[in-house]
Amino acid sequence: MDKIIKNVIIDGQKSAIVISDGKIAGVGRAFAAKPGSEIIDGKGMTAIPGLVDVHVHFRDPGLTEKETIRTGSEAAAAGGFTTVLTMPNVLPVIDQVATLEKQVALNKEKGLVKVGQIAAITDELTTDRVTDIAALKQAGAKAFSNDGHGVQEAKTMLEAMKAVAAVGGIMTVHLEDNGLADGGVVDPAASERLGLPGLTALSETTQLARDIELVRATGCRYHVAHVSSQQSVELIRQAKKEGLPITAEVSPHHLFLDESMIQGDDTNFKMNPPLRTKEDRYALIAGLLDGTIDMIASDHAPHTEEDKAGSIADCAFGIVGLETTLPLVYERFVASGLVDLKTAVSWLNKKPIEGFALNEAGQLRAGDAADIVLLDVEQAFQINPESFHSKGKNTPFAGEEVHGLVMKTFVDGQLVFSKE
């Protein structure tokens, strides 16, 4: 049965969307309904394409007390995300073809949204044994990452880049030199003030500089996860000017928070990489606005209350983000007048689709998958962790007043979330 979403606002104009067989059959001012069509009145709502997040953690299998594919994808749908890529640091690690195939099937069975799987660069994420990149790509890996761990040896990274380049894959990299990180948990600017070990940005930038040279040598498509520092932005900017195949993401917490905002030993402000200085944060915003940074990704990292209990010194790294990313981006960028909605949405849809070749995701065009989100952009609301669909409640944004409330989310034309 066809669906028609009528009276929605698209690019400032009242419009209608026709859905047929899971695809968008048309977008325009008005359409004649076929007999039997389901009519959905979108009055007062703004339609945007379903968002894409290339960096989430669903913890399933092995760590399901933190999150499951089901609860993670429910959070995604509630946050307006219709396609997500999950990292391989589950138990067992996604580093073998059989494990990947089982995970791909599980993601499809349990996911409310489109859940793509990223595979490991090296066995167990921490060894120097490069995985069977070609076989994993053939089995459905969307990208390759050791997220949570930097690849320590240049020789290992070179071998991995050659293998990824040979199969036309993409590598999405957590940058962290263990020796320079040295057990740090906050930016050095906050270290003395908070009495906590510092984690220098050199841990990120030195690996990035190394990897840029390896990209130059191999031609590997290379994506920088959760950029955090001003110097990293400049390194990426220069690499792009040279035409190297590099893309980058930034998380909402690195865009909207910095170390000066950590007022005490609040574990919801612990993430890796850590919040850096105000100057770093401004450089990230500038890099996003000028295209140096391509996209926004949540790095959704749910934990139990026990995981985040105690001190920043010894609790788990990470915060949730799937249900806060869109309203935070809307509030800070669109409602403030810094950019228009189309630009903000491009960071969360068009750019990740292009960067990761996610052709199964839709962009609100005729012929695309009917991945559609309806927003109420007028109603203000407070971020309330107790209302999250995610098992994780760990966020430093609790209580913030924002706009951009997701009212309905459709995946392939099927309603997967409704606020009403």
Automatic annotation (TrEMBL):
E.C. code: 3.5.2.3
UniProt gene name: pyrC
Domain annotation Dihydroorotase catalytic: ranges: 47-231
Single GO cellular component term: cytoplasm
Keyword Cytoplasm attributed: no
Protein family (similarity comment): Belongs to the metallo-dependent hydrolases superfamily. DHOase family. Class I DHOase subfamily.
Pfam families tied to this protein: DHOase (PF12890)
Residues that coordinate or bind Zn(2+) 2: D147, H174, H226
Protein name: Dihydroorotase
HAMAP family with a match to the protein in the record: PyrC_classI_B
Lineage: superkingdom: Bacteria
Pathway in which this enzyme or protein is active: Pyrimidine metabolism; UMP biosynthesis via de novo pathway; (S)-dihydroorotate from bicarbonate: step 3/3
Catalyses which reaction(s): (S)-dihydroorotate + H2O = N-carbamoyl-L-aspartate + H(+)
GO MF entries: allantoinase activity; dihydroorotase activity; zinc ion binding
Binding site for substrate: H57, F58, R59, N89, N272, H303, F317, G318
InterPro entries named in the record: DHOase, DHOase/Allantoinase_Hydrolase, DHOase_cat, Dihydroorotase_CS, Metal-dep_hydrolase_composite, Metal_Hydrolase
Essential cofactor(s): Zn(2+)
Protein's job: Catalyzes the reversible cyclization of carbamoyl aspartate to dihydroorotate.
Note on cofactor: Binds 2 Zn(2+) ions per subunit.
Record's keyword terms, sorted: Hydrolase, Metal-binding, Pyrimidine biosynthesis, Zinc
Active site (catalytic residues): D299
GO biological process: 'de novo' UMP biosynthetic process; purine nucleobase catabolic process
Native source organism of the sequence: Fructobacillus durionis
Binding locations of Zn(2+) 1: H55, H57, D147, D299
